[in-house]
Design brief:
Helices cover 32% and strands 19% of the residues. The chain is an alpha+beta fold and 190 residues long.
């Protein structure tokens, strides 16, 4: 397989299973090893960060990080592999945005927009109240709200500062600079 046969993915990893950040760090590191064993190559992990739970009050602080990786898997197959790792690690999806052992998100697949631009725009434009109760039944990439979340953009800037959002036309660095400073004030490296 050549690099041209691989899909390039941006991944987000997080855990807030415990009040103890050290335990959550160990869970994120364990997930990284499982992702590598699932066939993702050239995985590059950025720094780990302590971030407040989102939405506020949804549990203990998170440990968040982002990574880049390559794989011959399609984006849908890659997401299925990430969900299988979550299940193996004990994640049960009962409460949307609730406390979780591990959260593995496929943020982007190169410059692809899936399933289509109209569906992406629909999910990107949902009001917060709808975001909190609705979940898409299919993969949406790029992640429809990555551009407004400091807990994603700060770690993503470690590994892909120059990745350009295919709809917004802005790099990770530019999206991060455009956030209200309050959005990143409580994010701290571990």
């Amino acid at each position: 397989m050549t690099n041209d046969d691989r899909n390039r993915f941006l991944l987000a990893l997080g855990s807030n299973a415990f009040d103890d950040l050290g335990t959550n760090v160990a869970l994120v590191k364990d997930a990284v090893e499982k992702i590598k064993r699932a066939g993702f190559k050239n995985l590059r992990l950025g720094h780990l960060y302590a971030t407040p739970a989102f939405p506020a009050g949804a549990g203990p602080d998170f440990v968040n990080a982002c990574a880049t990786a390559e794989s011959p898997l399609s984006p849908t197959e890659a997401l299925a592999a990430l969900h299988a790792i979550e299940a193996e690690m004990g994640r049960v999806r009962t409460v949307r945005w609730g406390q979780r052992v591990i959260d593995l998100d496929l943020l982007a697949a190169g410059d692809r927009v899936m399933p289509d631009v109209a569906t992406f725009r629909h999910w990107m434009g949902l009001p917060l109240a709808d975001q909190m109760r609705l979940a898409p039944g299919e993969l949406i990439v790029p992640h429809p709200r990555l551009h407004e979340r400091g807990f994603v953009l700060v770690p993503l800037a470690d590994v892909a500062p120059d990745w350009v959002h295919p709809i917004l036309g802005r790099s990770v660095r530019q999206m991060l600079a455009g956030l209200d400073p309050a959005e990143t004030a409580e994010i701290r490296p571990i």
